[in-house]
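So, is this right?
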Amino acid sequence: MLAGRNKALEAERPGSESASPAQAHRALIALAAATVPFFFSLPPWVAGGALLIMGWRTLLLRARRPLPGVIVKAVLILLALLAVVISFRSFGGATAGGAFLVITAALKSLESRSVRDFRIVALACWLLLGAAFLLDQSLVLGIYALFVAWLSVLALQDVHETLGWPARSRMAGRILVAALPVALILFVMFPRLPAPLFRFGAPKLASVSGLSDILSPGSIAALSQSNAIAFRVRFQGTVPEPASRYFRGPVFTRFNGSTWLRNRDSHRHLTGQFKPRGTPVHYRVLERANGTRYLFALALPTRIATPARLTPDYELLAPHRLWNDIAYSGVSFPHYTAQMQLPAATRAANLELPPGIDPRTRGLARQWRSASETPAGVVRRALAWFRDKPFYYTLRPGRLMGRNQIDTFLFQTRRGFCEHYASAFAVLMRAAGIPARVVTGYAGGTINPYDGWLVLRQSNAHAWDEVWLAGRGWVRVDPTSVIPAGRIEASAASAVTSSPVRHFRQLDTGFIWHVRNLWDAVNTTWTEYVVGYGHSLQNRLFEKLGLAGAGPVVTALLMVALAAMAGILVALLGFTHWRTREKEAVKRVYLRWCRRLARSGLARSPSEGPVDFAARVARAWPERARAAEEITRLYCAARYGGDTASTEALKRRVRQWRQAGPGPAATARARRGRSGKESR
């Protein structure tokens, strides 16, 4: 008895009825669409496994097969958890948490039966979109998110089954359009925080992540084959010449014979100041997420409008790794004098070489030093060596083997990319007694004609050297720049285009070139004004609106007024939704009564109205004619007249009808069954 009562209460709960195939398919399609972006930000098995699970649920739905049992679902959850831990070496962070969220959202579909279950599946799309934006904030994802949001709202419209597909589609679009003013107000009034509210674990970036803390042969060559954007720069006034466009990144002072490492004191702040010369350059940088702490300012910066510090090697470091795009302004002096006095410890660190390696390189450097009157003369001899000997600039130089790799490069292969030349030059200088170090970063870049931004891609990654000369301090030397154009292989030509190495012109100026630059300009606008919308941009917007000097009181009143407008709009939308849900709740109660009558042999025709159906019930069941007419009257008053009191009365009448017993057809069958037993 109690079990039957609980089952009846469960059946009366809104959304507990079984979902129709169309409702289930809409929710599954929305969830599948929300999973697609993770193909580009997480390992492919995450989104692929989730889509396989959803495909399995679709096949079960079409074949009307039972859902997997508790044991199967528990095993799948444990396997998903194990796969995430093995793949990401952790269960925390944006990537591991996002992967587990994608898999569990797909597993939710395997236990979804009722309308309420598939509503949860549709709502899970919004959680997946939030997780996707933690990993990527591109314009493409922003546009695609609108499509997923429309699919999710469309799937949530299970109460409008009587509407056709075009009407439901338009209604979903109207709901999203109505929500846009609220979203816009919230976006304008609550800018992006300068630092993350929560520190997630390090995500595994699927794209090229940029320069690293280790420099080995081939590391920059691999980057230079990528066309991904590293950062964009917009200058105030005249754009510096390509020969002055060096954006400094990691600096390497320790060499073990094949690999360069950063200075052990790179965690310290800059102590030796530099002296700017010439005219300052003002600019703004939009840097893509790269998983490092490096901020690529024009060498050398005197002011950066973001939390950062200069190391003793003039590296500009952010306080935390850049897992999201960042925008900052800066002031730099391309011409400067750095560290006129070199401390003994710094000198020793920049002269150190591993003992017993590269004897031919050491002998050549000693020969140059004895034949030169000054260290600057040694530098000139080394550059002439690279220019006059048959050295080639190539992305595929082959692997350097053995203990004496610099000897092999200088005297045998003579084929390399910028890191090969910078490494060999630094070793030559140190062997000649001249302090030297390798600097990596980005150089050159191309101007986008549509918005005037300088675009630096991973193909602009570069390595050069700095030597310390008495009376001049640290001086930049780029040995790659002396390689003649005839000895630059075709595979590497694109890597030196528009860089200080070679001032080639872009040959591709046709339709594709214009489309790429136009799309890049749109992406720049999105990154600067949407992704990078912070307190500074909010202040600039308030200045244009005449609120810059209004004071905190007026600003607070404006925020309250906008919040009130948003609240009123949300309240109106909520009231409309509540009225709709009330009407549909009345419809569910009435349809439950119709299904009971159908089981008793009185099925309602799809084209039969409530009043006509009540008249037919009265003719077939005269003793309940008044009850049927009362239920129909209450249904019409509640659904079409908006009478909320009639809703509760309708529910009571339907319960009383159910308690009165079976209908005429069921009673007749029972009587025939009893008479058959008596005759036997």
Remarks:
- Confidence is low (pLDDT under 50) at residues 1-13, 201-209, 501-508, 668-680.
- The chain is about 50% helix and 10% strand.
